[in-house]
């Protein structure tokens, strides 16, 4: 399968480059910008390399690529095609003998770029389809003569590296499009991956298809074909155990295992900690059965969790109790299955869990799902023994959703908002009791039902639920007396949280209409008798967090 390799120098938009190209049907992989290059990193599948942007400077602390990149010879005998984006271009210029200096003013936002060369120039002779001149033409074919680009740079090229030539400049007069006279090396000062850049896809596509000659052979069907083969090879006849949380990732991972392996071989274990949402356990059971699971182990352990949490109100202590108990129960229950030592442990790790972009070159860190979750000795031991399989580790979240649909996973699961490992405990400031969990479960279910039945005012074709990244209710340990139907009830205060986000690292408050909020609040107060007041949390992250605890 053809592949574009992306060297990540820490730009916040590196992931976007990878996404855009994958969406064009070409597989991409991101590796640290300073990774050592050898035949393992640059396999024969790699048809071109993109050097990403960076918040650093080439003359400062910015990382440099392994210099072998400039002498790498492709299997066809030519130089490896390179595209430098922003810092990537400055990096190539600096490494190859040009000059990069600080701009008097940072260029940021939409800026016009004009190609500044006529096609009569020999270097891009329209007739010449082969050789570097032909490639330059093929690359520039992705550009309009004048277009609005998206810039974000504090440095600029003040002298091109030998062999390079400028083919386009920004309205402020700095080089914006450059190409080497002989080698398939290109650079652009702007960010085609950002949606504000006019024709950004066509520019990236010109490099990927016209210069690198990639074929569109990345698709979910193709991924599943490969996965079938690799999972069967890895697992052979050994049992495979997957811990299911009820969320998208683990359910799709389970569906992939069930599709690729014999269902008898696949063990799916789910823990009902008593801190789950309404009807969650039953729904999970039905979904797994529908996917053809034969060995579903549902462990009901709510009482253990609730008794361990009795009288505990400190958020950190509550989290620790839940994390530790989870590990104890997990080890105990897995041991009870009496699987042979040769069993493999599957995880729903995603591509984004493995790369940590934005840090100048994220090292490949095997984190267990999210930054919050406690390390599990079971996972550590299995990883050491080389017995972990991660069927989704090359996929982005929306590709996981596509794979889920392809495998017939319920649409409700696929569109489900994230839910934290410690469950409702993060939404119950104060003591976690069964009674408080029940009230929260009911109120949360009404909130979510309302969101699913209401149309988004931003986009009339989707529901409020689908327009929101994550929404849930929080039950406060506060009573605000009120009289419902003539009887004094506890009048608990319920907070609603609804946010938009792309990855949960930052979040904006969802801008409900006042009418939606009023109607949802009335419905909750009328349906859950213990609730007397509803408030809306309007804090963004940062400085607040998404969960309350
Ligand atoms: P915060 O509260 O840190 O949440 O802004 C960011 C995202 O992570 C989820 N979250 C967790 N996920 N285990 C998880 O798997 C946890 O302990 C945990 N705590 C928070 C949260 O729901 C949000 O999507």
Overview of the molecule:
It is a single chain. The chain has 549 residues and is α/β, with parallel strands linked by helices. The chain has helices at 14-23, 87-95, 131-140, 200-211, 220-235, 248-260, 280-290, 302-308, 315-336, 351-354, 377-384, 397-406, 411-414, 434-453, 464-467, 514-527; strands spanning 3-8, 27-32, 46-51, 82-85, 99-115, 146-159, 164-170, 175-180, 185-188, 240-244, 266-272, 295-300, 344-346, 388-389, 470-479, 482-484, 487-489, 492-500, 508-509, 531-536. Helix 5 (220-235) crosses helix 6 and helix 14 (434-453) packs across helix 16. It is globular. Residues 122-127 and 356-372 have low confidence and may be disordered. Residues 369-370, 372-373, 418, 420-422, 426, 470, 504, 541, 545-547 line the site of xanthosine-5'-monophosphate (XMP). Xanthosine-5'-monophosphate (XMP) binds next to loops.
Question: What key phrases describe this protein's structure?
Answer:
549 residues; 16 helices; 9-stranded mixed β-sheet; alpha/beta; globular
Radius of gyration: 27 Å
Helix content: 25-40%
Assembly level: single chain
Secondary-structure class: alpha/beta
Which term fits the overall shape? globular
Ligand catalogue: xanthosine-5'-monophosphate
Instruction: Give the termini distance in whole angstroms.
Output: 45 Å
The major β-sheet equals: 9 strands, mixed
Q: What's the pLDDT, averaged over the residues?
A: 91
Spans of at least 5 consecutive residues with low confidence:
122-127, 356-372
- Beta fraction of the residues? 15-25%
Instruction: Going across the biggest sheet, name each strand in turn.
Output: 2-1-3-4-9-8-7-5-6
Q: How many individual β-strands?
A: 20
Number of helical elements = 16
């Amino acid at each position: 399968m053809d592949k574009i390799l992306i060297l990540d120098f820490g730009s916040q938009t590196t992931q976007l480059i990878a996404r855009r190209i994958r969406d064009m049907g070409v597989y991409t992989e991101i590796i640290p910008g300073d990774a050592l290059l050898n035949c393992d990193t640059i396999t024969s599948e790699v048809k071109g390399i993109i050097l990403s942007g960076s918040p650093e400077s080439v003359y400062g602390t910015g990382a440099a690529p392994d210099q072998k990149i400039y002498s790498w010879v492709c299997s066809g005998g030519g130089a490896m095609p390179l595209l430098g984006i922003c810092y990537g271009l400055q990096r190539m210029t600096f490494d190859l003998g040009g000059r990069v200096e600080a701009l008097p003013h940072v260029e940021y936002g939409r800026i016009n770029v004009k190609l500044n060369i006529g096609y009569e120039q020999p270097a891009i002779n329209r007739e010449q389809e082969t050789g570097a001149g032909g490639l330059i033409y093929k690359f520039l074919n992705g550009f309009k003569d004048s277009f609005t680009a998206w810039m974000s740079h504090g440095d600029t090229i003040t002298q091109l590296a030998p062999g390079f030539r400028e083919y386009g400049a920004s309205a402020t007069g700095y080089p914006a499009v450059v190409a080497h006279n002989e080698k398939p090396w290109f650079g652009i000062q702007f960010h085609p991956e950002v949606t504000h850049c006019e024709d950004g896809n066509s520019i990236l596509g010109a490099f990927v298809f016209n210069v690198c000659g990639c074929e569109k052979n990345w698709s979910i069907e193709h991924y599943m074909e490969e996965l079938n083969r690799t999972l069967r090879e890895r697992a052979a006849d050994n049992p495979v155990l997957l811990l299911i949380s009820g969320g998208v990732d683990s359910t799709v991972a389970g569906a992939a295992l069930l599709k690729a392996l014999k269902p008898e071989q696949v063990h799916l274990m789910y823990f009902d900690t008593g801190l789950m949402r309404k009807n969650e356990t039953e729904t999970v059971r039905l979904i797994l059965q529908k996917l053809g699971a034969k060995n579903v182990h549902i462990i009901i352990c709510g009482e253990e969790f609730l008794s361990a949490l009795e009288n505990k109100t400190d958020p950190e202590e509550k989290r620790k109790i839940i994390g530790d108990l989870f590990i104890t129960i997990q080890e105990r229950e897995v041991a009870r299955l009496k699987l042979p030592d040769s069993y493999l442990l599957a995880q729903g790790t995603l591509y984004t869990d493995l790369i940590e972009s934005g840090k100048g070159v994220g090292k490949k860190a095997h984190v267990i799902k999210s930054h919050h979750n406690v390390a599990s000795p079971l996972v550590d031991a299995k990883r050491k023994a080389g017995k972990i399989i991660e069927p989704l580790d090359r996929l982005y979240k929306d590709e996981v959703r596509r794979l889920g649909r392809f495998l017939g996973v319920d649409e409700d699961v696929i569109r489900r908002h994230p839910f934290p490992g410690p469950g409702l405990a993060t939404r119950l400031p104060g003591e976690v009791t069964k009674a408080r969990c029940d009230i929260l479960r009911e109120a949360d279910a009404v909130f979510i039902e309302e969101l699913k039945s209401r149309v988004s005012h931003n986009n009339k074709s989707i529901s409020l639920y689908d327009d929101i990244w994550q929404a849930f209710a929080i039950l406060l340990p506060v009573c605000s007396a009120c009289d419902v139907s003539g009887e004094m009830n506890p009048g608990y205060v319920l907070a609603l949280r609804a946010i938009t986000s792309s990855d949960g690292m930052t979040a904006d408050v969802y801008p409900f209409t006042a009418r939606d909020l009023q109607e949802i609040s009335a419905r909750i107060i009328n349906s859950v008798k213990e609730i007397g007041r509803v408030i809306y949390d309007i804090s963004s992250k940062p400085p607040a967090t998404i969960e309350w605890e």
